[in-house]
Amino acid sequence: MYIWERGTLGENRFGEPKPVTLAMRPKPYLKLDWFEFDKASLTPRLADMLNKLADTVKQSWTSQQPIELIRLIGHTDSSGPEKYNVGLGDRRAGTVAAALRDKLKGLSGRVKVVVEPSPGETEPTADNRTADGRGRNRRVEVFIKAAVLAPPKPK
């Protein structure tokens, strides 16, 4: 399967985008998986994972690589109609975004949280024929981008 992206891996000599396979996509920093079936709410386990992520983001601002962008993409298992699953994936990512923004209030002008459109059920990471696989597919992927600050000039 190919996904066409413009600008990520460059363009060919005709100005057309180069193909990007799913295997070539960036790996998520974190997968918040095992959302409950047909739910967008955070379980205690997911809330704990989110707290740890927020702590990591806060601590990054005392380093040379502060996290300045968090991208969220919600996914679903293959149960239910595709259009519904896209909406459910968006709601899951929206729930995570709202919780993150709340936890990062002190950094609101420095850290941007972006929810990207959900692919719904079309990008599974596990087998939808098993309960374990469906649980791992009900997820929000978290991608981060850190700024690289120049080291202080020697005196």
What would you say this structure looks like, in words?
- This protein has three helices and six strands.
- The chain has 155 residues and is of the alpha+beta class.
- Strands 3-6-4-5 form a four-stranded mixed beta sheet. Strands 1-2 form a two-stranded antiparallel sheet.
- It starts with a strand and ends in a 9-residue tail after the last strand.
Quickly list its features:
155 residues, alpha+beta, 4-stranded mixed sheet, two-stranded antiparallel ribbon, 30% helix, disordered N terminus
Outline the fold blueprint.
Layout: E1 2-4, E2 19-21, E3 30-33, H1 44-60, E4 67-74, H2 82-103, E5 112-115, H3 131-137, E6 139-146
Parallel strand pairs: 4-5
Antiparallel strand pairs: 1-2, 3-6, 4-6
